[in-house]
Structures are given as C-alpha cells and as structure tokens.
Amino acid sequence: MDKLYEGNTFYGTVKVGERGQIVIPKKTREYYGINAGDSLIVYSDNDKIFKIVKEDLVRSIAIKMLETVDTKD
Q1: Which three-class secondary structure string do you get for 1-49?
Q2: 3-class SS at 65?
Q3: CA-based nearest residue to 16, from 64, 50, 46
Q4: What is the distance between the alpha carbons of residues 17 and 66, in angstroms, rounded to a whole number?
Q5: How far is residue 24 CA from its own chain's centroid?
Q6: Which pLDDT value is given to residue 56?
Q7: How far are the Cα atoms of 3, 9, 63 from residue 31, in angstroms, in the given order?
Q8: Phi and psi torsions of 23, nearest 5°
C-alpha cells in the first residue's frame, strides 16, 4: 500500500475480465475485511470515479442514522 496523498491509498491495479469481473487485491481485502461471499455496493458520486463499499458498513450507518432520528421525536 502506498500513500498517494492524505486520505488516499494505492493498493494496485486490476483488470476487468471478459465477464466484467475484477479481483480485489489481497492487501485491500485484508485491510477492509472483505471475505468471500460478502456483499459490496458499487456507486458513484460523480461521472468519473466509482466506489465500492461493504454492504454491512452501509447498513450499520443507516441504522445509526435511523436511531438518531427516532430519539429526536
């Protein structure tokens, strides 16, 4: 892993296979705790960059947000 600049890390490169699949580098999987069978969400917040996030992380953030809303009533 190489730090490109604050907040960004370079883990390596991947190639897209014929079926549109990529292999996430081992160091990346280890660092983020990604295991076989995990669900990931792919999204973009602009036209040039997409991001991959573990589904369980998004789920836990959503639950915390809903709990915060529930306590304000």
Answers
A1: CEEEECCEEECCCCCCCCCCCCCCCHHHHHHHCCCCCCCEEEEECCCCC
A2: helix
A3: 50
A4: 39
A5: 11
A6: 87
A7: 14, 11, 24
A8: -105, 125
Q: Dihedral angle at the C-alpha atoms of 21, 25, 31, 36, nearest 10 degrees?
A: 40
Q: How far apart are CA 11 and CA 33, in angstroms?
A: 14
CB 66 within 8 A of CB 73: no
Report domain extents, the chain. 1-37, 39-73
Q: What is the pLDDT of residues 2-57, one digit of tens each?
A: 655 677 788 888 999 999 999 999 999 999 999 999 999 999 988 888 888 889 88
- The bridge status of strand 50-54 relative to strand 8-10 is unpaired
User: Collapsing DSSP states into helix, strand and coil, what is residue 72?
Assistant: coil
Confidence (pLDDT) at 4: 58
